[in-house]
Amino acid sequence: MQSFKISKLQVTNFRNLQPDIIEFNSGINCILGENGNGKTNILEALHVLSTRKSFRKNTAFPQFLGIDCEQPEIIFSSVFLDEHSNKMSLSAKMDAKTTHWFVDGQPMKRKLDIKLVFINPFDSYAFHNTSSFRRQWMDQHISQIDSNYKKCLSRYNSSLRFRNSLLSKKPAKYLEQIRAIDLELARYSCILTNTRLKFLSEIESFCTQTFKEIFSEEHLLKITLDSRVIGASEDDIYQMLQERLPKDEIVGHTTYCVHKDDYVLLFDGLNSFEYCSLGQQKMSYLSLLFAYIELFRYNFNSFPMVLIDDVSGELDKNRWQKLINYLERSSFQVLITTANEKFKEELETIHGANKIYVQAGSITNMPNSR
Ligand SMILES: Nc1ncnc2c1ncn2[C@@H]1O[C@H](COP(=O)(O)OP(=O)(O)OP(=O)(O)O)[C@@H](O)[C@H]1O
């Protein structure tokens, strides 16, 4: 798998950002500025360019387009470097109807697979509190390293949507159609469950080690899958779907299959949501993410880009320093933002880090004079 690092980025008409050329180094890039100046917008622009999607929910062109723009189009221009430091220019022209992508000036035929990991201030809270977030987190991260999982998940989801529409509309002969769909659902459920279990066992070996490496504390960190179909065969799952069908017909949707499965993060054997302080939850979540990055490296001998949107909350100064020391020791490219004055002071001490100051959407090399 090819890995890329961002070297230069320029966006025109994207949110509040001015079309300044933003330069990045291949190590730590600190994006600093006061609230509401455009730090997260820089991460978002890079996310859209790399994955074609925002990390903000329900956002697309109408939200991206700068409010005062004269032209209703957004232009992204960027230079990425591959692992051999070869340059690749990636640009995009986006309007309300479509987006045209170009690599090295030529229209792009296939989507580029630029891998990245994004962390925002609310993720730890959401991960601990919301099962749908946990599922989505796992699906997204497993899909990034396993294309077969991504394909099976997409097929499972479209079969499930079709099953649910049959259950709610009940057209003629819908039960026959559901029987055929259940064979598909059972097949994909087996693949998804086995891949989830494999992923959890692989990441487990990195979690505890990463926690210790970042925060110098020994805690056993583990994630378990909470599922009713672990160890079940395709036939077992098919039977289970058929047995639940009368109930599904009454409520008009599929009441259980692997889309309802959940994950539990265990901290020294205890559910971290129930037993850990907010700081410990944040440390566990960050360790999980960095364990994922280690697993990624183990599998592909390369790193994703790491975008960290202000994670200083809930952590004390000692933990900030440890996190910074870990980032300094790491070999991946990281873009980290903060508006927190104290954390900013810590980031500013990083030797060799690229500091990008953002003020009202403009990029400067100098700290804000206010
Ligand atoms: N479509 C848009 N056009 C112009 N400005 C926008 C648009 N969407 C958002 N903004 C502005 O962008 C700014 C938010 O930027 P961003 O979220 O990057 O801030 P930030 O520097 O990360 O702040 P914080 O430290 O508070 O998280 C706000 O001032 C907001 O009004």
Key terms for this structure?
single chain; 370 residues; alpha/beta; Rossmann fold; Glutathione S-transferase Yfyf (Class Pi), Chain A, domain 2; 6-stranded antiparallel β-sheet; 6-stranded mixed β-sheet; 11 helices; binds adenosine-5'-triphosphate; P-loop_NTPase; DNA-binding_RecF; RecF/RecN/SMC_N; DNA replication and repair protein RecF
Describe this entry's structure for a reader.
By secondary structure, the chain is α/β, with parallel strands linked by helices. It folds into 2 domains: 171 residues, 3-Layer(aba) Sandwich (Rossmann fold), CATH 3.40.50.300; 149 residues, Glutathione S-transferase Yfyf (Class Pi), Chain A, domain 2, CATH 1.20.1050.90. The chain has 11 helices and 15 strands. Strands 2-1-4-5-6-7 form a 6-stranded antiparallel β-sheet, with helices on one face. The chain has a 6-stranded mixed β-sheet with strand order 8-12-13-3-14-15, with helices on both faces. It has a 3-stranded antiparallel β-sheet with strand order 9-10-11. The longest helix is centred in the middle third of the chain and has 42 residues. It binds adenosine-5'-triphosphate. Adenosine-5'-triphosphate binds next to helix 1.
